[in-house]
Write a structure and sequence with these properties.
Blueprint lengths: L7 E5 L4 H10 L5 E6 L12 E2 L2 E2 L5 H8 L4 E4 L15 H7 L1 H10 L12 E7 L22 H18 L4 E7 L1 E3 L12 H10 L4 E3 L6 E2 L1 E3 H13 L1 H4 L2 E5 L5 E2 H16 L6 E3 L19 H7 L7 H16 L5
Parallel strand pairs: 1-2, 1-5, 2-3, 2-4, 5-6, 6-7, 7-12, 8-11, 9-14
Antiparallel strand pairs: 10-13
Length: 335
């Protein structure tokens, strides 16, 4: 690719939690950056990239073609979680996003390989470690068989399989990153973290107890959002080493949720000067599913060896950053 031509990078789902952070990271690179979302995406301040925001409904194939038809790299983070705990009666609307958008992306790129001497475009998909279904009592390295337990995970797996098939056909260089729990607040984005860690931080700031559906022994791999964003950058930098496979993305460090929630309570206590709120066990709701009670161990070494990427931000540092961001946002504006 010539130095005079900036590669076009399309980010689908750029207004979301992870997508907005990834857009902020990409804005620091000399690329033609196209953040795509249903609503307008603000241009990051001080951008080195040429930023071309695009508002589009990605359930419309013509809109997908406008978004990715000329892209060198597509980072596919668009999703529709819906009520992801529903069984086989999952609404068709979620399938239109979770599978249909991938199908439309691949259709839009199908005629691209070899055009003008350009290599096949790179497509990096945001998968989920829960696609495996029943997780093993050991770190997952991506070689495990998949038996997804929810409609959402079945849809994510179906999209991933479409991407792998397109890679085998030579239409794209396809990479799927199966993400562990993502958390934290980044100064690159104003979009709040909707996940369990920052939800607990908001509860603690409100003085409310932190509740668990179990005894706190369930293990999770919890990865700071900027580290996950950097994993997507690493995938775009090493597509030929990664293509045609899915890769597990996490810290490789595993924390029990009881300890995580106590870390959140302590961080909020230090930030506010109040005593830590209690961490208590409650009965799980009827909507709880099997994967809520299974451990998640991640082995990120295969991805690290292929790309040089490693998670940098420890859990406590990430929690402290997130709590500080919540405190700043809650503070009254200066006169």
């Amino acid at each position: 690719m010539s130095a005079a031509r900036r590669p076009t990078v399309a980010v689908l789902g750029a207004s979301g939690y992870l997508g907005s952070v990834l857009t902020g990271l990409l804005a620091r690179r000399p690329v033609r950056l196209r953040p795509v979302a249903r609503r307008a995406v603000p241009v990051p301040g001080g951008a080195v990239a040429d930023v071309e925001p695009l508002a589009a409904d990605l359930t419309e194939p013509a809109a997908v073609t406008r978004a990715v038809g000329d892209a060198d790299v597509v980072l596919h983070l668009a999703k529709h979680a819906g009520d992801w705990r529903l069984p086989e009666s999952e609404p068709a609307a979620t399938e239109r996003v979770n599978v249909g958008v991938m199908r439309a992306v691949l259709d839009a790129l199908a005629d691209r390989p070899g055009a003008g001497g350009r290599p096949p475009p790179v497509v990096v998909f945001a998968g989920a470690c829960t696609q495996i279904g029943r997780t093993p009592e050991r770190p997952m390295d991506g070689t495990e068989p998949d038996h997804p337990q929810t409609a959402y995970d079945r849809q994510k797996l179906a999209a991933e399989e479409l991407l792998k098939a397109a890679d085998r056909a030579g239409a794209v260089r396809g990479v799927s990153l199966r993400l562990a729990t993502v958390f934290g607040q980044s100064p690159l984005s104003e979009v709040p973290d909707p996940g369990v860690v920052m939800t607990m931080a908001r509860l603690a700031l409100a003085g409310r107890p932190l509740t668990m559906w179990h005894d706190g022994s369930v293990v999770r791999d919890i990865t700071f959002v900027e580290d996950v964003g950097r994993a997507f950058l690493a995938a775009t930098d090493h597509p030929d080493a990664l293509r045609g496979r899915h890769w597990m993305i996490g810290t490789g460090r595993h924390a029990r949720l009881g300890a995580v929630f106590r870390t959140v309570a302590d961080a909020v206590a230090e930030a506010t000067g109040r005593p830590p709120v209690p961490v208590v066990t409650v009965e799980p709701p009827d909507a709880a599913v099997l994967t809520d009670f299974l451990p998640v161990y991640i082995d990120p070494e295969p991805f690290a060896k292929a790309t040089g990427w490693r998670a940098r931000v420890p859990l406590r540092e990430g929690v402290d950053r997130g709590v500080a961001a919540l405190v700043r946002r809650a503070a009254p504006a200066a006169p």
